[in-house]
Design goal:
Layout lengths: L2 H20 L3 E2 L13 E11 L3 H15 L2 H13 L2 E3 L3 E8 L1 H6 L8 E7 L6 E8 L5 E10 L2 E12 L2 E15 L4
Parallel strand pairs: 1-5
Antiparallel strand pairs: 2-4, 2-9, 3-4, 5-6, 6-7, 7-8, 8-9
Helix pairs in contact: 1-2
Length: 186
């Protein structure tokens, strides 16, 4: 797997995880938006990905080796491109920063990847715990998980998903945390 393919897979996973963890979407039972009680502003979403077969980790390690072998200017351009999107990566995870307005929170609308859908419903008997499901038509990624809103400025999520790795379905687990950073940059 070349560096662009590895980082493309990771970007899909990042966006998929973010839209699950931060996009309230529709309540699976009532077809009404679920509005999470979170702070508006800049959020840092950190994630760690584990694959069942180890293919994801191998692909990211190889992508990192290829990145480190690039001439400094080319490597810097690639890292800058990711940074402009608020994304930083390491061999098994990374983070992304996204701004969310109060209007988006009130409307139950959060950033999402085109071609993906998701649902969120409160977990029976649990306060501030939600069950979620997402699917993305373009790349076939699909997953289920659980999100816990710790407080208005923090959340934890665990998402099990199936993604395409080297044209084969791969089971991955995404461990994600969200931390409110403050006001959005102007």
């Amino acid at each position: 797997m070349n560096i662009l393919n590895a980082f493309s897979v990771t970007k899909v996973l990042v966006i998929g995880a973010l839209l699950v963890a931060m996009n309230p979407g529709l309540n699976a039972n009532a077809n009404e938006p679920v509005v999470l009680d979170i702070e508006p502003g800049k959020w840092k979403h950190s994630f760690r990905i584990e694959s069942e077969s180890g293919l994801y980790e191998e692909a990211m390690a190889e992508a990192r080796r290829q990145l480190e072998a690039m001439p400094q200017a080319q490597r810097q351009m690639f890292e800058d491109m990711l940074a402009q999107q608020g994304i930083s990566l390491d061999n098994v995870g990374g983070s992304a920063e996204i701004c969310i307005s109060q209007q988006e929170i009130d409307a139950g609308i959060m950033p999402q990847q085109e071609g993906c859908s998701q649902s969120l419903s409160p977990k029976d008997g649990a306060n501030n715990v939600y069950q979620t499901h997402f699917s993305c038509e373009a790349d076939g990624a699909e997953g289920v998980g659980e999100i816990t809103i710790v407080d208005r400025q923090n959340y934890n999520a665990v998402i099990d998903a199936v993604v395409a790795m080297q044209d084969q379905p791969e089971m991955i687990t995404i461990h994600q945390t969200g931390e409110w950073l403050g006001e959005c940059d102007s």
